[in-house]
Amino acid sequence: MLRPRKSLQPHVCFALRGKHFFPKRSEPQMSKRLLTAAVILLVSRHADLAHGAEARKVAFSYSAVSMTWFPVKVALEKGFFRNEGIEPQLIQMNGNIATVALANGHIDFSLNISPVLNGAMQGLGTKLVAALNSRPLFALVVRPEIRSPADLKGKIFAVSSFGNTQAILTEKHLQHLGLRKGEYQLLAMGATPARSAALEKNLAQGSLMPLPTNVQLENRGYHLLGNTAEIVVNPIAGLGVREDKIRLERDLIKRVIRASLRSLQLLQTDPRDTLNILMHWTGANEKDAPRSLELAQPGFSKNGMLTDEDLAIEWGFIQQQTKKTTVPVSVAHDMTLLREAQAELGMR
After folding, report:
1. Mean pLDDT across the stretch 261-277?
2. Distance from C-alpha of 205 to C-alpha of 292, rounded to nearest angstrom
3. What integer best gives the mean pLDDT of the chain?
4. How far from chain centre, in Å, is Cα 324?
5. How far apart are CA 65 and CA 178, in angstroms?
């Protein structure tokens, strides 16, 4: 069984799992004293359970500290999981390990969507049951001398690698700003720090950057030309499970979904209530945190729903990698329990 890193373990949270106990109807000869004792015993047992005896430990995997799955961090810190009788265990692992761990039952949920889609494509029975975000949390960062889309023609844009999702989204962002293929050049530079260095050395004039790096670069004089969350639909974070878990542990999955939906509601209605969580989690300072949340908010899912169309970009990329172009994306998601949880919370 995979174990969470100690530094990432949340504070232990306990809650009652919704079970209630009632004394049997007393017989006529039962004394008032015995009845009183039975009630006291019942209340005591109920209190003991409420202090944690029934908390369910649930393992979640994630790839890195990132705003993409921030709704789960909010649900943890705000007690939404505790209220559902769940004690989250947060485990950091890369995507290919998460696919195997989820399929083999070593973890309960994958928070990153890509490992779930890869497992579904391989026939491992992994499915998405809800979305945490519906749009990518990126912004196009360009050098200080570039001030408008008109200045982008002929420029070089750093991508993590050719053909991957970040590169695909970069081209879609540029084309949204009016550029055509051939009017820009892509340069594969690797992870975020390497792309930031490429901008600084003017090896590239722009790059699609995640939060909070894009805000930090903006504060250094770089410009943001468009929020990708307002341009492209492409979920990155959600709740992925094994298919048999949907049949065997419906209640557990719905409780996790309900906690996540409450977090998504908070991020839509009162996002500033989450600023302290954001600063503690990402290391963003008091200046960067509000701006980061402003850019992220359009990307968070409003109701957890996913469709075939939402997953088209990522599924197409996986099809291209695996050469399995006939497998429909519908095998990778099941929104049944999400709809039930929405109805229980009065959401549409």
Report:
1. 95
2. 22
3. 86
4. 26
5. 33
The confidence score (pLDDT) of residue 13 equals: 35
Q: Which two tokens stand for residue 6?
A: 């100690």
**pLDDT-based confidence at residue 5 (cuts at 50, 70, 90):** very low
Neighbours of 10 (CB within 10 A): 15
Strand 109-112: give its sheet, edge to edge.
Answer: 86-92, 56-62, 109-112, 237-242, 126-131
Tell me the domain boundaries of the chain.
Answer: 54-135+234-344, 138-230
The set of residues, in sequence order, having a beta carbon less than 8 Å from that of 40 and lying 6+ positions away, is none
Query: What is the reported pLDDT for 29?
Result: 39
Q: How far is CA 217 from the centre of its chain?
A: 24
Architecture of domain 138-230: 3-Layer(aba) Sandwich (3.40)
CATH class held by domain 54-135+234-344: alpha beta
Q: Do the first three CATH levels of 54-135+234-344 and 138-230 match, i.e. the same topology?
A: yes
- Model confidence at 237, pLDDT cuts 50, 70, 90, reads very high
Three-state SS for 89-115 is: EEEECCHHHHHHHHHCCCCCEEEEHHH
Burial 167-183 (b: 16+ CB within 10 A, else e): bbbbbbbbeebebeeee
User: String of b and e for 114-137 (b: at least 16 CB within 10 Å)?
Assistant: bbbbbbbbbebbbbbbbbbbbbbb
Distance CA 14, CA 19 (A): 14
- Token reading at 201: 């050395």
Model pTM greater than 0.85? no
What is the pLDDT confidence band of residue 290, given thresholds at 50, 70 and 90?
A: very high
* Lowest model confidence (mean pLDDT) among 6-10, 211-215, 260-264: 6-10
Q: Are residues 135 and 302 in contact, defined by beta-carbon separation less than 8 angstroms?
A: no
